Amino acid sequence: MSVEATVWVVFVAAMITAIATGLGALPFLFVKQFSPRWLSLFNALAAGLMLAASHSLVGEGSGDAPWLTLLGMALGLLLVVVSDRIISRRGAPDVNELSGANARKALLILGIMTIHSFAEGVGVGVSYGGGESLGMFISAAIAIHNIPEGLAISLVLIPRGMSVLKAGGWSIFTSLPQPLMAVPAFLFVTWFAPFLPVGLGIAAGAMMWMVFAELLPDALKDASPGAVATTVVLAFFCMYAFQYAMH
């Protein structure tokens, strides 16, 4: 297969991984109303999913370059703290139906998940550099892995008033860096590969901050600490088992 043909294969594969993120909103087609307690538990569920995703990113990056992964985590923490302060001072723009504090949370989680997608896009491109069969396997794994990530995004957006369709659209939007980064990563695999652990660390550090600064405090507003802890652990367990099965 020529390089030009493979470039299109890489782009289409990465685009499929992005579209798969929108599938995470589908469960909400069957749920119309949310009590305050369920909203809190949804935040706990999103926290558990994001913690498991962070754990996976750190493990993947540390296997290749632990110090670069730690550097990435520090950069991710710095990036999200600075971004949160800027948004808090200047005010967050409305995100569709959301406004005020809800818009700030939505903007943060959308930004964090978008950063995460840059690393995944590089991962797709680098994997195709190792052969088409490896690239297809990694792309399929990331696509399936993106569905619960889309669910985590929807768990934050939909209970706060966003429609299922728009939440699915925003979920896909956060994954668009995947096809954008996959092609250059494939074409310049030897240059991109060393920076992948840094990207994984940035995403992990930012997501961990989001869990402890935003999702868990919201989860504890209308649900007991025991119920929140149980939901977080079960979500982490299910996500980790899912990731382990994929590998």
Automatic annotation (TrEMBL):
Entry annotated with the keyword Kinase: no
Source organism superkingdom: Bacteria
Subcellular location(s) of the protein: Membrane
Name of the protein described by the UniProt record: ZIP family metal transporter
Keywords on record: Membrane, Transmembrane, Transmembrane helix
Topological relation to the membrane, as annotated: Multi-pass membrane protein
InterPro entries for this protein: ZIP
PANTHER family: OS05G0316100 PROTEIN, ZINC/IRON TRANSPORTER
Transmembrane segments: 6-31, 65-87, 107-128, 134-158, 179-212, 224-242
